[in-house]
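dumping this here before i forget
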Amino acid sequence: LTTVGAAYTNSNAAITLVCGNNNLTYNGAVTNSGLLTTGANSVTYGGTGAQTIIAANYSNLATSGARTINSLTFSGTIGIAGSFTPAATFAGGSNIVTGSTIDFNGDAAQNVPAFTYNNLNISNINPSSAAARTKSQTGVVTVNGDLNIGGYAASITTFQLGNFNFTALGSSNI
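structure:
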């Protein structure tokens, strides 16, 4: 486990932060102009301050911490190949998702948890996979922007709705 307790800043686009198989926890502000390569691990945005979730492909992504009036800002396209655990709590702050896309792109079954998404993609990152992939809704889901469900010709990607409310306010591409 690697924990970054203070602010993390990478202002050089040529630098790649490689986590390998280590779990990584950011407890401070995160600014990244380079690449984040997460490996087969978990990245957690913890702490209590405001943070921006780096646009990257994650194996597993989690948020945590009592944020009070501070917010978590989701930026760009955030790919998730494994699990997404949005567990941060707020008392005035919120998850800010405007302009972001969460892409459940794992080459395996995945759960799509309760959350308010801006754009939501249900996909499969592996173009050569011949196995069907099911992504399952596990809580109340709201999509403020667009919903895209797709895969590759070799595999079938299915979004299985659960016994929960599901709202898509933008365009749907299925």
